[in-house]
Design goal:
single chain; alpha+beta; 2 domains; three-stranded antiparallel sheet; 4 helices; 6 strands
């Protein structure tokens, strides 16, 4: 069974059929294909599969680049940049960290010490490293 298509059997309401659902780029799509509206259960499934393929073609998946450049809606913070405590050699360092993925299955991390650069400068360096990393993604 393709992802996004589910069999629904509601004997009480006689609503047997196939439910098609897709969530893409914040938009939700849904449609129910009742068996009784088609010749058979199999023809309802064929119609559901056609509808699902059309939905996927019209609403392509978000690219790695778009996914990396998205913004948080709840906190307004920059995705891929965070403040954290890093334990190392018996001492705990406060750092700002930037993460990005230049290629599939590859991760880059840069940390900037708050002790060395100061709070604002370390944060700005992490943001700059993240933006440079995203620019590196788009070049490939």
């Amino acid at each position: 069974m393709p992802k996004g298509i589910t069999r629904i059997e509601n004997y009480k309401n006689r609503a047997n059929g196939w439910q098609v659902r897709l969530l893409c780029r914040g938009k939700s799509f849904s449609k129910f294909f009742k068996d009784s509206d088609y010749v058979s259960k199999e023809s309802a499934l064929k119609a559901a599969r056609r509808f699902y393929r059309r939905l996927v073609a019209e609403n392509p998946k978000i690219s790695r680049q778009e996914h990396a450049e998205r913004e948080t809606s709840r906190t307004g913070e920059i995705i891929g940049v965070r403040r954290l405590l890093k334990p190392r050699f018996g001492h705990v360092y406060e750092v700002w960290e930037a993460k990005w993925s230049p290629q599939k299955y590859q991760r880059r991390v840069r940390t900037f010490s708050i002790e060395k650069y100061g709070e604002e400068a370390a944060k700005n360096l992490a943001i700059e490293a993240r933006l440079n990393g995203l620019a590196e993604m788009s070049e490939k």
